Amino acid sequence: MNTLLKSLFVASAITSMSAAAAVTQTSATEASFSFEGTIEPMCKTDSGSNSVTGLNLDSTQETQEIGTLDVWCNTGENATTEYSSANGGFLVADNAQASKIAYTLSIGNTSGVDLQSGTYKHLTTVAGTGSTGETQATSLKITPQSNGMNDAGTYSDTITVTVSPN
């Protein structure tokens, strides 16, 4: 009886396989194939000119360019950029006192950005588009709040920029 069940099972499997592979007759003269894929929205960035080593930190509080931010997005729209300061919005000296000088940031035509209160989101950063990857540059500048009486030392900060599509 066991052998009979095995034979029925094998016969059933062969019948099922041949039924699944069978070609049915149709009267159509064409076939259609539908397919799709998705490219998620994204932006890329690079720092153009940067690494300024000669900031003027006297009492003039002169606005000075620190570099350009180059942005490309595949959305055809501007980007959102988020700015954060390693030193909480201060230039910090390499002296024993770790002296600080506050500054404000300018992003293109937006000025007076204070990073002391945390990160700052800029919703209208211009972005290049297209399949060849041309970027659009946004000028970044700082205005040190120095008074000409600051402690001696080399002052620095690092601003990190994260870009995302609008």
Automatic annotation (TrEMBL):
Residues 1-21 form the signal peptide. Keywords: Signal. This is Spore coat protein U domain-containing protein. It comes from Pseudoalteromonas amylolytica. The lineage of its organism: Bacteria, Pseudomonadati, Pseudomonadota, Gammaproteobacteria, Alteromonadales.
